[in-house]
Amino acid sequence: MQAMLLAAGLGTRLRPYTLVRPKPLFPVCNQPLLHLLLDKLTAAGGGRTVVNCHHLAGQIASAAAGRPEVILQHEEEVLGTGGGLRKAMEHFVDGPVLVMNGDIYHDINLSGLLAAHAAGGCAVTLALHDVPRFNTVRVCGGRVCGFGQAQAGETLLAFTGIHVVEREVLVRIPAQGFFHIIDLYEELAQAGQVGCARVDGCFWQDIGTPTDYLDLHRRLLAEKTPTWEISAQAKVGAGAIFSGWGAVGTGAVIGAGARLSRCIVWENAVIAPGAELADQIVLPGC
Question: Domain check: are 76 and 179 in the same one?
């Protein structure tokens, strides 16, 4: 399996946190999201994977170091979801390419998605599910027929950010500059060439905003028995109290008597003694 992981976005809705770290490197239960996504690709039989980067590119490069399957693609300008794919085309052989956004956490069966693409006979297959907040993909007759407001006989579904595209399709993307892949998919949908693979019931969470990022941890750590994921390399002062759910990363220092509830403390962050925090993302130096 050949793949591309899109990791070049600016993450403007996550500022000021993305001024410190690019969105694909946000820790999820103390592990960088990028590593979790690359592990999913490997588990599904992934081989060559292009990871593009632009914003804080050096951090992405460091995080991908030591992974021989990764080809790092540094983009001097923002190329968008389509422009990045077109630039990466030289690294792909003929056949399907699995594309995944670098700002989602999920348990979607990637092997199943590839099988659905092969069986569907379309140039592109989108992994879709029903999430009303994000439902913008028009589906009819088992295929994608467009994007936007549904028309008679159509169903609206949400795009997971995971899709399979035949390499030959990428030739249709302009060779230079910014391009939004959905613009091309809109054209292909009119020709009946965009398939729909339903993944309803999967665990899926976008981390596009601070609220979404905290909500991902709530779902992971509190839907059954609320718990805290505290690194063995964190230092916790006497009398510190943890309530609800949360995570504390490697090298973090929690001062004596601090009270934390529903917080994500990044590695090497410091919480002052006696501090009381709730529903917070805590970075080093804050």
Answer: yes
